[in-house]
Amino acid sequence: MNELRKEVEAAAMAELNRANAKFPLFNSTHEGYAVILEEAEEAQEAMENVKTSLAVLWDRVKGIEVACFLDKDTTPTAIFHQAIDAACEMVQTAAMLLKYEMSLGAKAGEKGENTHGDLCG
Length: 121
What we know:
Number of helices: 3
Helix content: 55-70%
Structural class: mainly alpha
Distance between the termini: 37 Å
Number of domains: 1
Largest sheet: none
Radius of gyration: 20 Å
Shape: elongated
């Protein structure tokens, strides 16, 4: 797993470099958050595709007849590609988190207007 983690981190850095070459740094915490949220939602949608396809595959394993129009999109190879798509979306999410930090530096972890006094230091 450590080796895979290093490869995924390298992929996130490569994605960050591609994104930075194509788009400017974030101008605000709101912009950065919106981009990160979009990527995270795309990753969640991709993972839901995997889960749905796995449920169809499981039905086949149990001998339940499955509608033929699902055949092409629910083979192990098709689900493999869906899983890779989900992983790619998570890599993009990770890259945008780094871009957020890079764009906003010290502001990256700041909250909006402090209305709770000095509870956190």
